[in-house]
Amino acid sequence: MVRAAVLPAVGAPLEIAEIDLPDPGPGQVRVRLAAAGVCHSDLSLSNGTMRVPVPAVLGHEGAGTVMAVGEGVTHVAPGDPVILNWAPSCGTCHACTLGEVWLCANALNGAADVHARRSSDGSDLHPGLNVAAFAEETVVAASCVLPLPEGIPLTDAALLGCAVLTGYGAIHHSAQVREGETVAVFGVGGVGLATLQSARIAGATTIVAVDVSPEKEELARAAGATDYVVASENTAREIRTLTGKQGVDVAVECVGRAVTIRTAWESTRRGGRTTVVGIGGKDQQVTFNALELFHWGRTLSGCVYGNSDPAKDVPVLAEHVRAGRLDLGSLVTERIALDGIPGAFENMVAGKGGRALVIF
To answer: Where are the alpha helices (DSSP H) in 98-244?
Structure first.
């Protein structure tokens, strides 16, 4: 038996419960978690913004140590440190054949599987986003584990599994920020902080952080922001003022709200690029008129998992960490136990802090 955070139903509070995990079967790996990040996507799964089979063990950003492997698993062995990959690509669907593995049509098929059972009554549990990282141990498909590169602290490595891949990819893959360009990042949570660091790594000059909370300015500047704007109805105007009345070259929206997406778009220069990372609900409708789309010549694009290929990007990120360019620990503003996850959800809703990290 292991302890896990279970979502019994959409909209219900998380429950800390004991669960029974099976031994790893062919092509599976059992991992003892060292840490798991509390991501806004977990909150979106719990409140129904994103659909998930329930009851489920949530958590998708994690790292740990391999305990056992099933038949046919050769790329990791017991004792190896690993990062969990919640969206493994199948390699055969249309998106994968185009090289767009972040859009894999089959990446989340495992979320419908029976992952474990409650110890108390034997009821089935699903893995929220394939990997069920809100638990002391988990059993996942071999494709869901990546060997951890040398020189990376195991607990901090959990952040590579989602926040950092997403933020880095938004800058380097989706927006393709070039040295000397200007960037605005909307939302200074875990992903936003990773995005700010990535913009600095890319060589951006002016880097504007935007958030509703004045208290996050110190965090933002430590991550690379050169300027900080408290969100208001004048945000776009303030950003244009900071950039010679032109607007930034690139805006990255990490919130998932219609008004923030629209403001991010308005904050870019003529011909600028806006990348939307935040996951919003169907009720968040963003509107544009045909004339302004023509006149401004701006680009608005979605961004899934940073448009990243974890197998290729994790080694690159590890090199940035080892060289001191990327500071994983600075993204974490709270280290908690399993029963602290509901409080971390509340802080996200209130717009407080960066990343909360569950330490096992």
So the answer is: 154-157, 163-169, 190-202, 217-223, 235-242
52 pLDDT band, cuts 50/70/90, is confident
How far is residue 30's CA from residue 80's CA, in Å, rounded to a whole number?
Answer: 11
DSSP summary character for residue 174: I
Cβ of 257: how many Cβ atoms within 10 Å? 16
One-letter identity of residue 234:
N
User: Which 3 state secondary structure label does DSSP give 312?
Assistant: helix
CA atoms within 13 A on the CB side of 248: 36
Report whether 266 contacts 236 (CB < 8 A). yes
Using the 8-state DSSP alphabet, how is residue 360 labeled?
A: -
- Tell which phi-psi region holds residue 203, choosing left (phi > 0), alpha (psi between -120 and 50) or beta: left
* pTM of the complete model beyond 0.85: yes
Q: Is residue 153 very low, low, confident or very high in pLDDT (cuts 50, 70, 90)?
A: very high
Under DSSP, the state recorded for 24 is: P
Residue 7 vs residues 17, 168, 304: alpha-carbon distances, Å: 10, 30, 24
Tell me: cis bond preceding 55? Omega within 30 of 0 counts.
Answer: yes
Q: What is the pLDDT of residues 210-253, one digit of tens each?
A: 999 999 999 999 999 999 999 999 999 999 999 999 999 999 99
Q: Parallel, antiparallel, or unpaired: how do β-strands 116-118 and 183-186 relate? A: unpaired
The DSSP H or E segment spanning 56 is strand 56-57
Residues 53-78: tens digit of each pLDDT: 999 999 999 999 999 999 999 999 99
Q: Which residue has the tokens 């199948």?
A: 90
